[in-house]
Amino acid sequence: MESNVSNRELNNNMEEQEIDIIELVKRLWQKRMFIIKITSLFVVLGLFVAIFSPKEYTAACTVVPQINKKGASSSLSSLASIAGISLGNIGGGETLSPLVYSNVMNNTNLQKELVYTPIKFKEYDEPVTLLDYYTNPDYRKFSLIGAIKKYTIGLPGLILGAISKSDTQVEAQPTLEDDAKLVTLTRAELSCIKILRAKTNVNINEKEGYITLSANMPEALAAAQVAERMVELLQKYVTEFKIQKAASEYEFISQRYDEAWAEYSKKHEEYAKFKDANRSISSAVAATKEEHIRNEYNVAYSLFSELSKQKIQAEIKVKENTPILTIIEPVTVPLEKSKPKRSMILFAFTFFGGALACGLVFGFDFLKSNFDIKYLNKWE
After folding, report:
1. Which of 71-75, 78-82, 297-301 has the largest mean confidence?
2. Where are the domains of the chain?
3. How is residue 180 annotated by DSSP?
4. How confident is the model at residue 90 (pLDDT cuts 50, 70, 90)?
5. Vertex 354, ends 350 and 355: CA angle to 5°?
6. What is the pTM of this model?
7. At the topology level of CATH, where does 55-165+181-242+325-339 sit?
8. What angle do CA 134, 140, 141 make, to 5 degrees?
9. Cα–Cα nearest to 220, from 24, 40, 55
């Protein structure tokens, strides 16, 4: 008995739900003209956005970070041992985490170099730096969609930016010599960096071990140039980061090597001059003097010889530590634009308009049945 009762209740609930759905569909059908009008309005708006949205092209490059394994190669060690040089365990050490490459691309110094990269655009005879292209009014293109966004959605930010700019018109200039080492940015540089960070991307595939660098620009050739420059700067800054310690050691040893070479040359010349001047003299004083000069010469030679070996070791260590970005997918000039995707824009606006219209129908029905709103008196 209980199971029969529960089955009846379940069937009744399903029938009620079916009736509710049918009623909702009927209501939407009754207000179909209202829904069509709202949806058509959004279709027109979608067409407007799709047509007037600025074009963008995406160029990408895929690279694989590589570094020599720890320890010098056996062949190199053998050749060095013949020359009396022990390379030891001077390899490149641990490989950099792929996440480091993303952080390096956001480095302010790297971004600053990127904004001053000259790029060739079709409409200009001479290359234009990205800084000028995005901040100089002489190169700034008018965008209808951009202007609408700027003075509607972006109006609060525009007002706040104007206020903050007026409050900080005078910028403090560095007064100490040490401040020359600090990174300073102008407002134009900072603005351009923000734009480029939105238009460039570093995608890291940790599982497969490769990195994809991409750039979006209004022109295909410009996008390829920016992507190519990104690869160059990434290689440069990752190398500086990885070999910083080894390069510092190499520079220190090189300086000591130059000093030892100068001292060795000096003592060698002194010893040769003394030998030439005292060929026929066999006194004890001359022999003692010769021994003293020879000892100084031997010490200078030993120091010079040892530093020569250390210099070679340090040089090899720098090369062993230098990471290499192996390009597996080079930068190519894109043939098709990546934005705007007009069909997707039109579909999104149409779907949103239809959903909004249906929601308005049920919303107005709810408001009219529960509240006395004079504006909805004509709503049927």
Report:
1. 297-301
2. 2-50+343-376, 55-165+181-242+325-339, 248-320
3. G
4. very low
5. 115
6. 0.59
7. Bacterial polysaccharide co-polymerase-like (3.30.1890)
8. 125
9. 55
